[in-house]
Design brief:
With about 170 residues, the chain is of the alpha/beta class. The protein has helices at about 20-35, 50-60, 65, 70-75, 130-140, 155-165; strands at about 5-10, 40-45, 80-85, 95, 105, 120-125, 140-145.
């Protein structure tokens, strides 16, 4: 069985509604999922829709990812999940992508043999320090600072860089 790679985006707003910033972030994550064969898990977003309905609604308002068609395709393949806290147990080894890694959990570079395991790259735990983000950071196996220098990036930039560094094929 092939290991699953998942991009997890956590909405830390007290209001769980999808604002414009979150809508754009979700849309920008879709081509990354396609490029790296990742699933997408959206956590703490208010939606009563199933993933396909959610993707169809989002597709109407974006030009990203073939005008939203990629999002619908991923949802139809079962690659999109909308959930609440706590993260599903089948998420695999959780890697919090953060500019403030715990030095005891910090990893650098390619994941090597870990690529044989289910992995989840978790984004959205830095901007707001609340119990949710503290629990996720504490319970994750690894922390990854994509810059290696504690520089905070915009989430879409961080997602692209982290996927490239952690999921690219190791050159022989």
């Amino acid at each position: 069985m092939t290991a699953t790679k998942t991009i997890v985006i956590i909405n830390q707003n007290k209001n769980k509604k999808i604002d414009e910033k979150n809508r754009r972030l979700i849309a920008k994550s879709i081509p990354l999922c396609e490029a790296y064969g990742c699933h997408l898990t959206l956590v703490n977003y208010e939606s009563k829709k199933n993933p396909i309905e959610f993707a169809e609604e989002m597709a109407e308002s974006t030009s990203i990812g073939k005008s939203g068609d990629l999002f619908i395709e991923l949802a139809k393949k079962g690659f999109v999940r909308i959930t609440n806290i706590p993260l599903p147990k089948q998420s695999g080894k959780e890697i919090v992508c953060t500019s403030k890694p715990d030095k005891n959990k910090e990893i650098t570079g390619h994941l090597g043999s870990e690529m044989n395991n289910n992995l989840s790259l978790i984004f959205g735990t830095d901007k707001l320090s609340n119990q949710i983000s503290k629990d996720i950071r504490r319970n994750s196996k690894y922390h990854f600072d994509v810059t290696g220098r504690g520089i905070e990036l915009e989430l879409d930039t961080e997602m692209g860089a982290a996927c490239n560094l952690l999921f690219r094929a190791k050159k022989g």
